[in-house]
Amino acid sequence: MVIVAVALLITCQLMAQENPSSSPLGAPTSPTAAPVLGAGTTAPAAPSGIPTDPLGIADAMGRPFTVAFILASVIGVWSVVERLVILRRRRVIPKAFVERFLMHLRAGRMDKNEAIAICHQNQSPMADVFMHGVRKWGRPSVEVEQAVLDGGERQVTQLKKGLRVLNGVSTLSPLIGLLGTVVGMIRSFNDIAIAGAMGQTQTLANGIALALLTTAVGLLIAIPAMAAYLYLAGRIDSIVMEMDRLGQELVNLISAEALRERAVVVAPKSELTQAATAQAARPRNPGPEK
Known about the structure:
mainly alpha; 11 helices; 0% strand; disordered N terminus
């Protein structure tokens, strides 16, 4: 609705600037000699000009096309607002949760069951990706990475769900406008042929201009919808790259290779600690008696 209103207002302003004298299609306002009509001849109806108010433009386009444009604009606005709410970065990748989760894994203060419980409690898209990987805790890195990829693909599908609707609005709106233009031109030529006013260029041009209104409104709806689609698609790409980086970091912490390397590093430290403790507990040999 908002997009249609803006489109109608812009169209009205453009028409008013090009036609300040309110004459059809900028026709000169200077008086001209009226044609002499013979007996029994009726003068053709003077062209009413292009409407400059939203209701007039809606009436000129016709109810079916007006309803179609209103529905397209409402669906487009709803899709943009809904995706902006869904694609908030702090909702998809909660910074506090991710930092705390990875910190506990690096420090070794979390096991598999605790990690699954924390991910299930958070319920964010990033937590769901982590949960898929944690379920393969201790398995080879290939299996853990594949589980992370599966969870990531599912979340990406959810993030892109509303973009199809927005893409459809940006694609179909110009086509609906073009259809309205074709129908309007057919109707205009038919009315001119019936009225016998084929030689009057003002009437012909006025009818074509009215028919082109649907194309203008369709483009004014499609252009913002396409811009919003490109913006949201770029935001999704950046979020997916961040999720992929964090998922790879998880693989490097819980895979079998990572756990084995950590155990190799910790084992020498434990042996050195035990040796130092045993050395301290060993009784000292008394010196030689004098």
